[in-house]
Design a protein that fits this description.
By secondary structure, chain A is of the alpha/beta class. Chain A contains eleven helices and ten strands. Chain A is globular and about 70 Å long.
């Protein structure tokens, strides 16, 4: 099999693109595809200060690597979620990556924060599923770090598989408000929010893993231990089966949604955001979702201690 | 395991309902569920004359059986599609069913009609997939028979699995006009059309198969030979996997769509229907889709004969 671009011997076959590439051309094509997504959706320019949320996994490190190579102004943000050895290993990978490139990495450790609550604590002391609690915790700290650091854009490593699985989940339950909001660029709805972008939304999990491997990026291969049995994993498997039978399904599903489907779910009138009385970040109610979670953990933890 | 209704020994377990039933109670519950769908969606009353499209399969015969038992005024319509031994066997099952119950069965044989075109001919002489051609052919003859026979309602045996698979296909490709129209009751858009209803849309394939079996209805078990490899089959498999992991998924997917999703796809302005110049049935263009299909088959067949 030959490389589609240079006709040298191919190293990687991408069924979804019906094409194969040599190593050099794959890296070129991957970077170009990310660049095209950034341009197509007007995600950011060279004037922006971009905070890249990095977990130590293939997607976020591949994203940071590409943005750095393309010459954008970036810093990394690592959130220590307190998920045992998984968190420790992912932090190591992230620090190593930043050091090797001389990039600035911001660290937030939930167990050290005044109002911090780790994901295991949130799951243990409330009735939330770990992934739901983790979503609330991440959103809050991403927003806060972007605001406090004076960034103009927050970039995350969500890939095509993530986005298609999320879309399938939203569609299976007809979550209209979530469907109305699912897009690769979210404009800020409050002065203390920044624009949120997902530059990898058109490239697959396989592509970012291949990119990271070919660039010699050491990333944490294990999935988060909390994700076992999560419905997101099932949706990804289902979409992989469809992709296998009909290559291109994932990309069409997502991009046709963005082109034709999303507009149908007229965005809900969002309501005016105020400020959380506790942390000062934008909130729909007097207390934001994150601070409600923290308060609930504190209350239940005290109760548990009193009974112990 | 005990029957949920009468506590006798259960014969059938339905995971999607998280319940088991004895034979008598299963038959009762199935009929009651069909009745409830008819009432909930105001499909028809005892004053209506209902034409039931029957294929000889489990769903359409189960439907006709239930409607007959509930005392509705029904006649059957069997379309001979000309699909070899499959069509012959399905016709036999249908005739047997009607005879045993003294019900009136209308027959239309495509190879005997003046403007008839069989599904194999349509597939051979045009570039349409057999299932697409079959859809056009069926719609035309169902509409015509209901109109000519003076019926007020046309009922088909589409079950929950059919409807959920169709919805998944429409969603994967974001077919907005199809999504806008997918509902269990379609009101007529022209004086020569009748209301179309799908009373089994909330009961699964497994339920109608069980009902037909317990009632001793002999139905054709084979799937249509054209359906092999059809994407509809893949979508059903996918939904069965989801159902297996999360019982109730199919019903929620479909009913939440009908409750919350469909309205978002504002029905396309339909345009005024005129009459087909060839067959006189309602049509968007001068010639209806069915007559265009027939003309295409005639033209290509003549060309093929001239070259032979």
């Amino acid at each position: 099999m030959k490389c589609k671009r240079c006709s040298e011997k191919a190293a990687i076959k991408l069924r979804s693109h019906n094409a194969a590439f040599c190593k050099t051309c794959f890296l070129f094509v991957f970077e170009r595809n990310v660049e095209r997504s950034i341009a197509r959706d007007e995600m950011f320019t060279y004037d922006d200060r971009i905070l890249v949320a990095v977990s130590g996994g293939k997607d976020s490190l591949a994203l940071w690597d590409v943005l750095h190579r393309l010459g954008y102004t970036t810093e990394g943000l690592y959130l220590g979620l307190g998920i045992g050895t998984y968190s420790k290993a992912s932090q190591l990978r992230t620090e190593e990556f930043a050091q090797q490139r001389g990039l600035h990495l911001r660290m937030v450790h939930l167990e050290e924060e005044d109002d911090g609550v780790t994901v295991p604590d949130a799951a243990q002391f409330t009735r939330r599923a770990p992934c739901a609690a983790c979503g609330t915790v991440k959103r809050h700290h991403f927003d806060r770090a972007a605001d406090e650091g004076g960034f103009t854009v927050l970039a995350t490593g969500h890939n095509l598989d993530d986005e298609a699985a999320r879309l399938l989940g939203n569609v299976l339950h007809w979550q209209i408000p979530y469907l109305a909001k699912q897009q690769p660029v979210l404009e800020p709805t409050h002065a203390r929010f920044v624009r949120k972008v997902r530059p990898l939304y058109r490239t697959s999990e396989l592509e970012s893993a291949t990119y990271a491997f070919l660039r010699g990026i050491k990333y944490i291969v294990e999935e988060c231990p909390n994700s076992r049995g999560a419905s997101q994993i099932l949706y990804k498997e289902i979409l992989n089966q469809l992709e296998n039978e009909m290559p291109g399904t994932k990309l069409t599903f997502l991009t046709d949604f963005l082109k034709h489907g999303r507009a149908a779910f007229a965005a809900q009138p969002g309501g005016q955001l105020g400020e959380c009385e506790r942390c000062g970040m934008p909130a729909m109610a007097e207390i934001c979702g994150y601070c409600r979670l923290v308060a609930e953990v504190d209350r239940r933890r005290s109760q548990a201690m009193a009974h112990a």
